[in-house]
Amino acid sequence: MNFTLRQLQYFNAVADQRNFGRAAQFCHVSQPALSVQIKALEETLGGPLFERQARDILLTPLGRDVLDYARQVLGAADRLDQFAKDHSVGHRSLAIGIIPTIAPYLLPGVLAGLRTADVSLRVQIREARTERLLAMLRAGQIDAGVMALPAGGSELFELPLFEDRFLLAGSAGRLGTVHSDPDALRPVDLQTAQLMLLDDGHCLTDQALEVCGQDRGSGLINMGASSLATLSRLVAEGFGLTLMPELAARSETEAVPGLKLMRFGAPQPARTVGLVRRLSTGHEDWFDSLAEVIRRVGDDIVTATRH
């Protein structure tokens, strides 16, 4: 092997930062030292990895191909390093990814449950949107991801854990104008309502648009909030309506005075929360144990909300 892990780390940093100076700072080296290693890697691989423009750095076709392999190698090296550290002190580690519309509400109970079951387990949490979590999972940067299903991908194994139904959230005044009979309320009844949703890229936004039969081009859709906490405060002040997962409902209504919730009529719209791993990981005990803890915590939260 004529290239080094250090060269791959520098290459990955430049690809992420799209700037040699920022990449050097990120890697805690001088820019000339980083540039020398990138040049040596390019000579080894037989071509330029970056297209150097005046104000930007772009990957060449060769660079795009190499980046996929580099991240797999770096992910494997990180896992080996972590394994060696854990093995030396008798500890095990688990890296879990989780999407932002689930993390604040599920994590406290899940982490407490994992600690109770195995005090030697060291858990690393990465919070990111679905697309990023799937990329991290494929690259070996996390061991499993908690997200809404289906996630997609023939190389992934998806395990459904619990159903998280959607509620309609807003101020009392706004909800009072939606439907005269709450038991007959349907998501399609919201097509003339002002909906406020999370900014583009959140899977919850796509799910909300789908169940309401709307698209991003609707003049009544306002996407821009970065979190459910922000949405809750906006709709509680009468700025529109939003769909609130049961998982978040109790926490948000306790935190936001004036936030009211209304259930849809049957069949109630919902998302399926599940656990995803690589097929190549194989069937291991930690996955079943993690799934059981998440299922129990999630079921407890949504059941309490329904009652």
Please sum up the structure shown.
With 307 residues, the chain is α/β, with parallel strands linked by helices. It is built from 11 helices and 11 strands.
Task: Report on the architecture of this protein.
The protein has two domains: 5-81, Winged helix-like DNA-binding domain superfamily/Winged helix DNA-binding domain (Arc Repressor Mutant, subunit A, Orthogonal Bundle), CATH 1.10.10; 91-307, D-Maltodextrin-Binding Protein, domain 2, CATH 3.40.190. The chain is built from eleven helices and eleven strands. It has helices at 5-17, 20-27, 31-45, 61-89, 103-117, 130-138, 172-176, 203-212, 228-236, 246-255, 285-306; strands at residues 50-52, 57-59, 92-98, 121-127, 144-149, 156-170, 195-198, 221-225, 242-245, 260-263, 270-278. The strands form three sheets. Strands 3, 4, 5, 6, 9, 10 and 11 form a seven-stranded mixed β-sheet that branches. A two-stranded antiparallel ribbon has the order 1-2. A two-stranded parallel sheet has the order 7-8. 31% of the residues are buried. Belongs to the LysR transcriptional regulatory family. InterPro entries: LysR_HTH_N, LysR_subst-bd, WH-like_DNA-bd_sf, WH_DNA-bd_sf. GO terms for molecular function: DNA binding; DNA-binding transcription factor activity. It holds the Pfam family LysR_substrate.
